[in-house]
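Pilot study result, target chain (154 residues):
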Amino acid sequence: MLYSFQGSSDGWEPLGGLLKDKVGNLYGTTGGGGNGDQGTVFKLAPDGTESVLYAFKGGSDGDNPETGVIMDKAGNLYGTTFAGGGMHCSHTSAGCGTVFKLAPDGTETVLFAFYAKRGVQPAAALLMGKHGLLYGTATAGGKHSDGVVFSVKH
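Predicted structure:
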């Protein structure tokens, strides 16, 4: 065992996959825990030391990241949250989810907040494409409320 979550500020319920960088650090997300109890982005060093890089607050910044993260050449992490974002989502009172960017200094930026026809509740990992685009899927929303495939500039 490399690390055992304590179910508090370090996070709990790691659902998504892990990302490994060139020096062996692992990056991932937890669906809960953190200071706001809305999930975290974490880093696990090769020696087993865990660091919370970002703790979601559950409002416009996002809530409940269910997937792992991806990284660009500059070390920015990208991922999705299942809830949070704008509260203009009729599908759920918890928000429809976000696509976020986490800079190496820990600054989180919401790149997109989902809503209705633009998608609701993304629950799969992102794919980094060419020309500054991220691709993903959302489980609901769209023209027939049956989900969407989306792209977002990063």
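One observation from the pilot: The chain has no helices and twelve strands. A full batch analysis is planned for the follow-on phase.
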